[in-house]
Design goal:
Number of domains: 3
Helix content: 40-55%
Distance between the termini: 61 Å
Structural class: mainly alpha
Order of helices and strands: EHHHEEHHEHEHHEEHEHHHHHHHHEHE
CATH superfamily of the largest domain: Metal-dependent hydrolases
Radius of gyration: 26 Å
Length: 476
């Protein structure tokens, strides 16, 4: 039996990413019934919704076959207000009320869940919800939680490191943590951790991409028994920064689509139709997620050439024009629109390719304008063009957010890996850095900085290699 044990609906309304907060956008616009339909169509045997601190989404589909009520509880370590997310499955309204009453103190919350024999687990344990997470918090999680989630919105490295940490636990390690923190696990064999999987989807695009499987489970009770006995298996695909960015684009587009009532223009505007089919949840009955962008391109009519437009004056118009040029000039994309995309191509990679090409063409356009105006000594127009080019990066913010968050997460994960798996092979692997540069032996600020970095790396025994080119003079 397969179930996505971590998925959101429109009732997860409070955004956590700053980019969504900036535009006043909720975290999700997904109707609970659409979550249900997508999960079932993507192969899930049962469906639940785990909204943040509410069961309204789960209640809205409770009358449908094969559902149960769950939620994602924001819990706090009372000593320093570090936030964590706790998944609790198969609950009712009375239990929800008690969870909300106790969630400000994670120790009291866990004690209650154990007392009531609830099925619960910690979501994305290596992700810092409010930037207060430390290795000591993770140690305490090892004593408090029998089940740990491998999360569909986190990257492969984070989930792999979490797996290594959980695999490295033994009775001696847990006893050492009990002595250190004074927390006695209230479940048997606390060094054996159950694993769950969930998509943590907010946009509808990635529902059921990550899920939990209990083999040989025929009924929901069998599935829950597998969770209790810690026999469940996480399945599916992890995310990349591109996945997170695509999710943010999708949520932002869904926000403005609703706010500006763009749906009434979709069938009248070919490019809007492309966006609609690329950034809205698509049913697998519409062939596949992987083909959604292909279908969007084909049906939008973008490939039909019209007369050449004048050069746009505003960034929005420029982005649109350059996006259309991509379709006109990319023979592979034209071929894909006629014969279909490879099933190996992920939807987030397709969207990244589209955004990347559009941005590159827009930047090239601005660069040409700057050079042209510089040659004419048109200084004030240069400033205006530079400002417009800078504004282009706002359109790429979801990628900056995605890569920034994943980089920060990876640094913490590496420290957690070393901390918990010190005797393991992977923990002893030295980090190696290669730095490509076209200046090293010259006399300039960049070269001097690189030379100093080499000296510091040698002094601290770090594997740092500079790769450069030279005419053959001097010693390396």
């Amino acid at each position: 039996m397969k179930i996505d044990l971590h998925v959101h609906s429109k009732f997860s309304s409070r955004p956590t990413q700053w980019i969504l907060k900036k535009i006043g956008c909720p975290e999700s616009f997904m109707e609970p019934t659409l979550v249900y339909r997508l999960a079932k169509e993507r192969g899930m045997d049962r469906v639940t919704i785990t909204d943040h601190n509410t069961i309204d989404g789960a209640l809205e589909i409770a009358h449908l076959e094969g559902t149960f009520i769950s939620e994602e509880v924001t819990a706090h370590f009372p000593e320093d207000k570090c936030k964590t997310h706790v998944l609790v499955w198969d609950i009712d309204e009375a239990i929800h009320a008690e969870l909300m009453r106790l969630r400000k103190n994670i120790y009291e919350l866990v004690a209650y869940m154990q007392q009531e024999d609830l099925i619960y687990g910690i979501a994305h344990p290596l992700y810092a919800v409010n930037d207060k997470l430390t290795l000591e918090h993770v140690e305490k999680m090892m004593l408090l939680f029998p089940r740990f989630e491998l999360n569909g919105t986190r990257d492969g490295q984070q989930n792999t490191i979490l797996t290594h940490i959980l695999d490295s636990l033994d009775q001696e390690a847990i006893e050492g943590l009990v002595e250190k923190h004074g927390i006695e696990p209230n479940f048997d064999r606390p060094w054996i951790k159950g694993r769950t999987g969930g998509s943590d989807d907010h946009s509808g695009i990635y529902v059921a991409r990550m899920y939990t499987q209990v083999q040989d489970a025929k009924t929901l009770d069998d599935f829950f028994s597998g969770l209790r006995e810690r026999r469940s298996l996480p399945r599916g695909e992890y995310s990349t920064p591109k996945t997170m960015a695509h999710n943010l684009y999708a949520i932002g587009y869904q926000f403005f689509r609703q706010k500006c009532n763009l749906g009434r223009f979709v069938n009248k505007d070919r490019f809007l139709k492309f966006l609609d089919r690329s950034l809205m949840a698509v049913s697998p009955n519409d062939k596949s997620l992987g083909n959604s962008i292909k279908a969007a391109i084909h049906r939008s009519g973008i490939l039909k050439k019209g007369k050449k437009d004048e050069e746009p004056k505003e960034l929005q118009s420029l982005l649109r024009k350059k996006a259309e040029e991509i379709f006109y000039g990319d023979h592979l994309l034209v071929s894909a629109s006629k014969h279909g995309l490879s099933t190996q191509t992920k939807v987030e990679d397709q969207w990244y390719d589209f955004a990347n090409k559009t941005a590159n063409r827009a930047l090239a356009y601005y660069a040409d304008k700057i050079l042209d105006r510089a040659s004419k000594a048109n200084i004030f127009d240069i400033f205006q063009t530079v400002a417009s080019a800078g504004a282009l990066y706002t359109a790429l913010t979801p990628y900056f957010v995605g890569y920034g968050l994943f980089t920060k997460d990876r640094a913490f994960c590496r420290s957690a890996h070393s901390h918990f798996c010190l005797s393991g092979k992977q923990a002893s692997t030295r980090f190696k850095l290669g730095h490509f540069t076209d200046t090293f032996f010259e006399t300039n600020g960049v070269a001097k900085t690189l030379q100093e970095q080499v000296r510091m790396a040698m002094a601290s025994d770090k594997d740092y290699t500079v790769i450069t080119c030279d005419r053959g003079h001097g010693d390396v």
